[in-house]
Amino acid sequence: MAIATPEPQQLVDLSSIKTVKQVPYTEYFVSGHRTCQGCESALVMRYIAKAAGPRTVVLGSTGCMYVANTSYYTTPWVVPWMHTQLGSAGSAALGAAAGLKVLMRKGKLADEPINVIAFCGDGGGADMGLSAISAALTHAEYRFLIVLYDNESYANTDIQLSGSTPYGAVTTFSPSGKKRRLMHKRWKKNTPGALVAGHPDAAYIATADAAYGVDFMNKVRKGLASGGPSFIHVLDPCPKGWHYDPQYSHEMGKLAVETGVWSLWEMENHEVRLNGTTKQIAAGRFSRKPVREYLSKQGRFAHFAEEDYEYFQKRVDEQWSSWLIPGVVSFRLEAGTPLNL
Ligand SMILES: Cc1ncc(C[n+]2csc(CCOP(=O)(O)OP(=O)(O)O)c2C)c(N)n1
Ligand code: SF4
Ligand SMILES: [Mg+2]
User: Fold this and answer.
1) Which ligand is nearest to the CA of 65?
2) Among 35, 45, 75, 334, which has the highest number of CB atoms less than 10 A from its own CB?
3) 252-303 pLDDT per residue, tens
4) Which residue ranges make up each domain of the chain?
């Protein structure tokens, strides 16, 4: 009996995954990488590849997920993968999507759906390449997904401070000393909030967390199915940079959301929706845990004094009590502003 060859269209399955049982069995990011034990960023790569499937091109910025993933003559990527410069995830995604479209229009490539995904770290995306991502998200005519994996430091070059590093954390650029307990006193940049507020033509923008795999894989699929430029910012606990035992990576990701330090949400069709535990917190069905439960488990906050915990808690409380959209948009409307304009 002849075995039917699947049509290319059938190989791009972007349907919603309802339960863990529906997660595709096939892996497109396999063994052969050298990331640290418990590295959630590597897990994120695995989820991306699993959700997107075989008809996918991945472009990866410099960082742990380039260097540790593609040591000399080895690669865990089963789908085509190409390195791109540290700050260029946005341009790589846009250029690849545009290039494929032209080749298909000219008949040099079969006209079929191909997923274009570019990833970057927080250093490469939230700092250095923010302008390229911003520019890419204004091109409504191209379909691609940019994933920013946030391990909250320039990890690959030995854990330097980034705009995504949380307040007070120790990094190699912000050690705690006898004269200054806290070297880093800036609040973490709200990159996904800035992108969602400033890019009205982006088709899909979301946050995710490596501890919530199905939620993240569905967001990857939604971004790719949106038909336009899409972006996901995913928080990835990093045992090396955050100083905790690798076995607690999953717990760390969950605590980030349960304490309200990190929020899960998505913007689709110009509407922001809170997801999962974040939605439950906002609806009063889940009590936010104290930030101390999350921070005290990480060595990068081991120098925290009582006043540091209190300050951190106060800032997180504000994200929930006085932001226009809790945990998402970091400003509020002046009291008395009419909303039925
Ligand atoms: C233009 C440029 N500057 C500096 C570097 C050195 N460099 C390589 S990886 C890296 C860290 C990137 O941090 P991030 O994007 O957060 O990814 P992570 O290493 O944390 O995975 C740096 C600074 C580089 N490759 N290119
Ligand atoms: S330093 Fe952190 S992000 Fe880099 S490979 Fe190790 S655990 Fe992963
Ligand atoms: Mg990083």
Assistant:
1) 1
2) 45
3) 999 999 999 999 999 998 899 999 999 999 999 999 999 999 999 999 999 9
4) 12-321
